[in-house]
Design a protein that fits this description.
Chain A has helices at 13-38, 53-60, 76-81, 86-93, 127-141, 159-170, 190-193, 218-233, 262-269, 273-284, 290-313, 339-345; strands at 68-70, 147-152, 175-181, 184-185, 188-189, 210-214, 239-244. Chain A is of the alpha/beta class. By secondary structure, chain B is an alpha/beta fold. The chains are: A alpha/beta, B alpha/beta. The complex binds thiamine diphosphate.
Chain lengths: 346, 342
């Protein structure tokens, strides 16, 4: 059943401020992560979505709580926008036992299955078939839920994307394929990696709509996502939604940014999706003033600080119960000759 | 260039200087590309970016975009293109950014590249090299840290190489590029920054010959990849405790230099087989079987022992990751235990 049309996120005070809170939370969470990383307190690697907050926020705000998402290596924003709690999220990144994945996943594999986040993925394109499968389950189980797949522009050059898109099309699955086109797959620009001009037009090959929106405008993303979700829920099948955006930071911690110019980065920083929405609220949303947005900023700052503090204080992930989360079959072990395993088991 | 270095790795080569493992790979690529116009490097971010691990460095500036080819994120496509290009006249070196992403390209590697020479009755060759960093230790978790060598070594038609030193990274890669058949070169991401003596010339290290970087009398450690260095370090510590250990670096998993391994195991009568990969159905299971089905079994003073990664995916948390993969302490403990048997 199609849902009633929804007003823009900036249309009313409560929704507008809640949306702003999500945008700022993603931004501040990642700034905190960046800082912890730089100070050597966080391990592994990080892919920050700073500059891309509007796509996660706009899409997830078009979803119901029980809808599903599959995320990417750049997945902090998706996780937060889908309703994750900051403490277990930060705890996961800090390799704590209380983290969402008990320290096994880290940033690149952050998941929150209880809120329908089936997980970030270290494999480019790896989540697209999973989202399509999740949509198949909703269709067969008649739950009325939809699934969203987040992926980057680079992922649309993988076979996994194309095969999954075709399955979604022929089975008319309740899935929305959301491409966050930030113009680069690591160092390779879309101008060089594809011979078509937009990601959206790739949908034509599979026979479903492809829609391109300003991915730094959370209202625009939300409107397009709302329509795509409604189509999906109504049994009309998939939509490919291309959100045109930009990542301010390098691909990961080791990126020297040799493949793009400072000017280009500056141009996009001027299109900041967070402050842009903030301005829109103050200028156009009834009942929202400067003091309201300042209060949101303060609240988010405190929440993120508090999450870091709580996560830091949590117990570390413990090697003693490393084997606790695996299917029984892999425990097959002969006895006797592996000194180290006995050492660990002891 | 036909200079060949055999037996132990580059130690002793007169013109050796110190390079990192990554620099050694780059030097091999540069020399091979300069020697033979048909050689090209292809992969994700190998161009201006210089490679995710910095391996290709300045090659793009030296050889240009036709020889150092950036590809989209399309592993199956560009590995397959490497297979076809190799069959039809080029000598592609295809880089997979992390060995885990060979999964995307497995059809082209296993069903195509490995079998073409055989299935065409010898009428065609696939002189392609597939380079891929494997292994754990960087906190990159389950999908970026695997040791998949057993998959490749189990596939007839693929040669599989795991260089453990900078000199071998260069010498084995040069041999792989010369080879008429597909060679999978599994580099280790923790080794890229490790340095060692590397000959300046394009000295080949032959495929299929193990190295014996250390000899001792009490036990023989047989290792692959990053574990070779850990075994050498352990052997050094064991020497202080009165245990003297040999270390064999397998270097080439396929073809496997069984004679060297058997000879070294016979010499001490005790075998400790060390790999980073999980134990179950791993490469060291094959080594163990080779020992016990040969006459070396009669020389054993103790059962063959294996020290392997746990049979789990690689976790993210550093303390978990360390616990999953053998560390120097673990090698020492296992060696002491083994040396006390028999
Ligand atoms: C199958 C696979 N190939 C390569 C990589 C290495 N890698 C990780 S992220 C990335 C770029 C992805 O680009 P895109 O899909 O556009 O997403 P973005 O990083 O821009 O968000 C690459 C090449 C990977 N993780 N998985």
């Amino acid at each position: 059943m199609p849902e009633p049309p929804r007003p823009p996120l900036s249309g009313d005070r409560a929704t507008g401020l809640a949306t702003l809170r999500t945008l700022w939370t993603v931004r501040r969470f990642e700034e905190a992560v960046d800082d912890l990383f730089a100070r050597g307190m966080m391990h592994g690697t990080m892919h920050l979505s700073i500059g891309q907050e509007a796509s996660a926020t706009g899409v997830c705000s078009a979803l119901r709580e029980d809808d599903l998402i599959a995320s990417t290596h750049r997945g902090h924003g998706h996780c937060i926008a889908k309703g994750a709690e900051l403490v277990p999220m930060m705890a996961e990144l800090l390799a704590k036992d209380t983290g969402y994945c008990r320290g096994r996943g880290g940033s690149m594999h952050i998941a929150d299955a209880a809120r329908g986040n089936l997980g970030a993925n270290g494999i480019v394109g790896g989540g697209v078939p999973i989202a399509v499968g999740a949509a198949l389950a909703q269709q067969r189980l008649r739950t009325g839920r939809v699934a969203v797949s987040f992926f980057g522009d680079g992922a649309t050059n993988e076979g996994a994307f194309h095969e999954a898109a075709n399955l979604a099309a022929i089975w008319k699955l309740p899935v929305v394929l959301v491409c966050e086109n930030n113009k680069y797959g690591m160092s390779f620009s879309t101008e060089r990696s594809m011979a078509v001009a937009t990601i959206a037009e790739r949908a034509a090959a599979y026979g479903f709509p492809g829609v391109r929106v300003d991915g730094n405008d959370v209202d625009a993303v939300h409107a397009a996502a709302t329509e795509a979700v409604a189509r999906a829920r109504a049994g009309e099948g998939p939509t490919l939604l291309e959100c045109v955006t930009y990542r301010w930071k390098g691909h990961s911690k080791s990126d020297k940014n040799l493949y793009r110019t400072r000017e280009e980065i500056e141009e996009w920083r001027a299109l900041d999706p967070v402050t842009r929405f903030e301005r829109r609220l103050v200028e156009a949303c009834p009942g929202v003033g400067e003091e309201d947005v300042a209060a949101v900023r303060d609240a988010v700052r405190d929440a993120v600080r508090d999450a870091v503090r709580q996560a830091m204080a949590a117990p570390d992930a413990d090697p003693a119960d490393l084997l606790g989360d695996l299917p029984a079959a892999v425990f097959w072990q002969p006895v006797g000759t592996d000194a180290r395993r006995e050492g660990v088991a002891r | 260039m036909t200079a060949v270095l055999d037996g132990t790795a580059a130690a002793g080569a007169a013109d050796a200087r110190t390079l990192t493992y990554a620099e050694a790979v780059r030097e091999a690529l540069g020399q091979a590309m300069a020697e033979d116009e048909r050689v090209l490097l292809m992969g994700e971010d190998v161009g201006v970016y210089g490679g995710a691990f910095g391996v290709s460095g300045d090659l793009f500036h030296r050889f240009g975009p036709e020889r150092v080819v950036d590809t989209p994120i399309s592993e199956l496509g560009f590995v397959g293109a490497g297979v076809g290009a190799a069959m039809a006249g080029l000598r592609p070196v295809v880089e997979i950014q992390f060995s885990d992403f060979t999964c995307q390209a497995m059809d082209q590697i296993v069903n195509q590249a490995a079998k073409i020479h055989f299935m065409l009755g010898g009428a065609a060759h696939v002189p392609m090299v597939l380079r891929a960093p494997g292994g754990s230790g960087t906190g990159a978790a389950g999908q970026h840290s695997q040791s998949l060598e057993a998959w490749f070594a189990h596939t007839p038609g693929l040669k599989v190489v795991m260089p453990a030193t900078a000199a071998d990274a260069k010498g084995l890669l040069l041999s792989a590029i010369d080879d008429p058949d597909p060679v999978v070169v599994l580099e280790h991401k923790l080794l890229y920054k490790a340095s060692g003596p590397v000959p300046e010339e394009a000295v080949r290290v032959p495929l299929g010959v193990a190295a014996v970087p250390r000899r001792g009398g009490d036990l023989t450690m047989v290792a692959t990849g990053v574990m070779v260095g850990r075994c050498l370090e352990a052997a050094e510590r064991l020497a202080g405790e009165g245990v003297s250990a040999s270390v064999v670096d397998v270097r080439t998993l396929s073809p496997f230099d069984a004679p060297t391994v058997l000879r070294e195991v016979e010499a001490t009568g005790r075998a400790l087989l060390v790999q980073e990969a999980p134990r179950h159905v791993g490469f060291m299971a094959e080594v163990a079987a080779r020992i016990v089905e040969s006459d070396a079994v009669y020389r054993l003073r103790a059962p063959v022992a294996r020290l392997c990664g746990l049979d789990t995916p690689i976790p993210y948390a550093p303390q978990l990751e360390r616990a999953v993969v053998p560390q120097v302490d673990d090698v020492v403990a296992a060696a002491v235990r083994l040396a006390g048997v028999g």
